[in-house]
Amino acid sequence: MSTQQQQPETQEAPEDPEMKGAESPVDEKEKEDGMIDQTAADASELEGKTVLIKVFRYDPEVEGKQEPRFDDFHVPFEKGMTVLDAVMYARDTYDSSLTFRHSCRQAVCGSDAFFVNGKQRLGCKTQIADLEHPVRIEPLPHQEVVKDLVVDMDHFYDQMHTVEPYFQDEDTPNPADLEEQRQSPENREKIKMSSRCIWCGACMSSCNIAAGDNNYLGPAAINKAYKFAMDDREGEAIKEHRLRILEQEHGVWRCQTQFSCTEVCPKDIPLTEHIQELKREAVKKNLKFW
Amino acid sequence: MYEHDVIVVGAGGAGLRAAVAADEAGADVALVSKLHPVRSHTGAAEGGINAALQEGDDWELHAYDTMKGSDYLGDAPAVETLAQDAPEDTMRLEHWGMPFSREEDGRVSQRPFGGLSYPRTTYAGAETGHHLLHTMYEQVVKRGIQVYDEWYVMDLATTDEDDPNDRECHGVVAYDVQSGQIEGFKANQGVVLATGGPGQAFDHTTNAVSCTGDGHAMAYRAGAPLEDMEFIQFHPTSLPSTGVLISEGVRGEGGILYNSEGERFMFEHGYANNSGELASRDVVARAELTEVQEGRGVNDEYVHLDMRHLGEERILDRLENILHLAEDFEGVDGLVEPMPVKPGQHYAMGGIEVDENGQTCIDGLYAAGECACVSVHGGNRLGGNALPELIVFGKRAGRHAAGDDLGEPQIKTGYGDDVEDETETELPVQPGSAGLESSGGVAADGGVAADAEGILQRKVETARERVDRLMDKDDGVQHAEIRAKLQQAMTDYVNVFRTEEGVKKALRLIRECREEYQDVYVDDPSRTFNTDLQQTIETRNLIDVAETIALGALVRNEFRGAHWRQENQNRDDENWLKHTLVSWDDGAPSIFYRPVILEGESKTYEPKERSY
């Protein structure tokens, strides 16, 4: 067949997947006039300009997106703009197929943990003005990518469930008599930080050990167990039961105190310290030392 | 097709509590939620749980405060049930390990909240909802209750008798967000809707992006009326830039509101000479906006909330979360400067009409939590009354759906002898259906009662066709455009201050949204995690719900609770001690009324002037 053959006029050009991201202005002139340079800038410098975000794209189903890539979006900066605001703007303005989880946008639902400029962060509480530009937004590492910024959280949930994450009291009194269990303010204070976990998965994603050992309980699940184990209301026998779960081969002893979980936790939970404390508790109880 | 005894839609506080209650009553329960349970919006609640726990307090005082706070639009049997059940249900949370804040003697702490005659708000720091949500989810895990997370429920499978009171609900149709697969879920005993609020109908809201009124819209189109939808609570303290909530706990602990002239305006301008900042929410929200309108706002937009004088120790102990929110979302350090705040849409007092057992007028269909209207909040919800509502009425709906006998309800539902028809309201446009996409939500069986499976199968097919149509269409309008227009209309015209002309404008704009929606399409061609598709379906729900809010706001020509009307700034007890009900009647909304029940167990609540 001759290569000279004309395409029929009626045939539409195949859709270029790259076009979607490109709907946002990317021309060189823009770059010179209004765009941010590759340096960090404070909020006042950003006013009236656009921010370049480079967003990871992947969809197993759609031709042209099966090969992972980054799309560029230029987002007009507004004071107070967060990473979540920026990806929402990109989705609603340029490409409605841009996919990510989000809900509360106030750092409590834990669904929008992304890998932003090489660090696990919550999109909704990360100010664009605090970041180096351009801003690179990727799904959490070490988790299977479902689509774009959405990762499969099943393994994370499974690990959380492994530690029996529910209160177990030794002797349940009848709540109808309106007597609460007593807990000292000090004991409540002790478990306070651990109880703030929002299950975002940032810690697990940042942990080298979890990346190499799929069975490692991981910082979030261990912290969940800490919340119960340190709560005086549960009693000693149950605490011992919890420590037995934690001191198993893939439990607390796997932690090599690299502090990466603590560093990325958006709720400032001292995860590594909690893991260390549980190691000490296990030793005190003469439990097995792996 | 999946099959369970009880199917709970939504896994926030009310849904989780309903599931646990149904499980305890012996039913095989499934939770179906578009989010993973711990992502639910209950987690964002900050303030606390009202429950008469201490000596010197009792449930009758709680009921009285709630009736007064509701501006006498709460139904006494519901309000008394809330006040009576809240103490035990709150203690049950404590026994399930919820980390409440504690007093020196180890008992749970309670603090003052707006409109309460006793400091009965039990709390866990300023993150009570987070702890409640996680505590409840833990109980679901403990019981091994089946959770279908990230399954978006699109529709209910109900029969199609002419009278909604004769209809039955046999299950739901949902699609798996992750794979796009659409399936039927058969409920042998009942469906409990616990889908939360419709805050996304407004553009400045404290609500999560997921709060799109899905349950409201599905129940409404299936024939269950929506009640008192005009009563939207605007929380006085949301952050101006994002709408993020600053808990009433700040004022409960002694936080002070100032205008740009440094005046403590709640007192100095006479808005609430007794309670000041702790007057109920509608009063404070109007006061703030009046200050802004009269030129005493900061940057013509907001006022200041100051907690510096409380001292670092107390702030860190009880309001630490607030410091983080102010810092992260407004760049303000609450320890050294006041926080900017303005009213934001926060809560829908109205919802799917249910009785005190959680049942709608449709057999087998229940609702609980913010999507339901029992009604306990009437014209205005008191701070700290949403969380006890979740656990009390979530529990009751779950138990009842599982077959427990909770006794004959005193509250009636559906269209019956006790209702009054609305015939006279002049509407600026024809509300309701605008064509194919807006057709009713009832299975068309030609009046012949098919079996449950047949009805469900037909609904599944209809849903698949609907999705195919949205996906196949390759040009048109995108949902984001319509949603933005709808949100703007509601914020402009159905906000804290309302005028007849404004509400009519809103109805016209809602109509335009509905017509544009006929041309809506989904651009994302993928079935995998297609949020474009999900949001397109949600937007349709928002249009229906927004319309009921505007219709209620138009017909109620009086000033009650959160509903302020320029034309009539007085409460009109003679004509308006009644609930507004909007039902979807063959593709168009019809409006009717039902009297408020002011007779309680042992006394009648006499409407009084509501002063604070």
Question: Can you put this structure into words, describing what you see?
Answer:
- The complex is a heterodimer of chains A (290) and B (612).
- Chain A is of the alpha+beta class.
- Helix content of chain A is 33%, strand content 11%.
- Chain A has twelve helices and seven strands.
- In chain A, the strands form two sheets. In chain A, strands 2-1-5-3-4 form a five-stranded mixed sheet.
- Chain A starts with 17 loop residues before the first helix and ends in a 6-residue tail after the last helix.
- Chain B folds into three domains: 2-232 and 346-408, FAD/NAD(P)-binding domain (3-Layer(bba) Sandwich), CATH 3.50.50.60; 233-345, Succinate dehydrogenase/fumarate reductase flavoprotein, catalytic domain (Flavocytochrome C3, Chain A, domain 1), CATH 3.90.700.10; 452-578, Up-down Bundle (Methane Monooxygenase Hydroxylase, Chain G, domain 1).
- In chain B, 33% of the residues lie in helices and 17% in strands.
- Chain B has helices spanning 13-24, 59-69, 76-95, 128-142, 214-222, 249-252, 265-268, 281-293, 312-318, 320-330, 386-401, 452-472, 479-493, 500-517, 531-555, 573-576; strands spanning 2-9, 29-33, 49-50, 110-111, 121-122, 146-149, 151-158, 169-176, 182-193, 226-227, 232-238, 256-258, 303-306, 339-348, 351-353, 365-367, 372-373, 420-421, 497-498, 564-565, 578-585, 588-595.
- In chain B, helix 1 (13-24) links the parallel strand 1 and strand 2.
- The longest helix of chain B is centred in the C-terminal third of the chain and has 25 residues, at 531-555.
- Chains A and B meet through helix 6 of A and helix 3, helix 4, helix 10 and helix 13 of B.
- Chain B: Residues 400-440 are annotated as: Disordered.
- Chain B: Keywords: Electron transport, FAD, Flavoprotein, Membrane, Oxidoreductase, Transport.
- Chain B: Its cofactor is FAD.
